[in-house]
Amino acid sequence: xxxxxxxxxxxxxxxxxxxxxxxxxxxxxxxxxxxxxxxxxxxxxxxxxxxxxxxxxxxxxxxxxxxxxxxxxxxxxxxxxxxxxxxxxxxxxxxxxxxxxxxxxxxxxxxxxxxxxxxxxxxxxxxxxxxxxxxxxxxxxxxxxxxxxxxxxxxxxxxxxxxxxxxxxxxxxxxxxxxxxxxxxxxxxxxxxxxxxxxxxxxxxxxxxxxxxxxxxxxxxxxxxxxxxxxxxxxxxxxxxxxxxxxxxxxxxxxxxxxxxxxxxxxxxxxxxxxxxxxxxxxxxxxxxxxxxxxxxxxxxxxxxxxxxxxxxxxxxxxxxxxxx
Length: 325
Fold this sequence. Notes:
Number of helices: 3
CATH class of the domain at 189-322: Mainly Beta
Order of helices and strands: EHHEEEEHEEEEEEEEEEEE
Number of strands: 17
Strand content: 25-35%
Largest sheet: 10 strands, antiparallel
Oligomer: single chain
CATH topology of the domain at 189-322: Glucose Permease (Domain IIA)
Shape: globular
């Protein structure tokens, strides 16, 4: 029925049905990661010097020519005490060996260099963790507005960020190289004198027969020779441990080498009697043997050496007069 003129009939706004929620978008699957190619094998080269033994060569002469200790030379070639040499025998030299030229008991040519190629295991490839995409969640809300004939739809987009667990970065594998100790600069004579001051005593008293150093072409004395009566007691110059007792070096005869602390060594040769054994601990002043004339000498005397090394490789001879009282 029509309303009278000038009258307005109000009717309640019809309730609008709720809109259907929009579907939640599923996250896209992550693209597969490319697999890195396997690393190629790593190779390294090692150069070894090899000396060929000649007639009249001796281990002592070879060790003096190349500036390496007898013990290192013997160990490098698996030689036992008293082992002899044969002509044409190949001897491997320690890495730090330096050729000083042909000598009376090391007459061979310059050592040959043998290069060996060694394969080293490559580092394991590091797999990068796959990142999970952040899911996006859409929420749709429908709001009815009273002063319009059509409902207004407002879309609110909310991005939910999941809490990611901390990813531990894998430790990269590295190709390990033998680790080798680098020798420091060899001390000067003045520094050696300060370092050795007060550490040593004379092993025997007597006149100086042969001084230290270069005595002529291909003739060098790595220590000093002290004259003494046959049978005189020879005493340790300092506390230490006996590292060699033997007589396989013909020129030196019966010999004792003692290792002291902080890189110092002493040697005693031409002994008549040997009073100590290898690995024996000894005290400064303790009797280690008696004066004799074994080896390439004609009268009783003691060949006395002092050596020093700032590393664990080579102990170089020094003039004993630098550090003796």
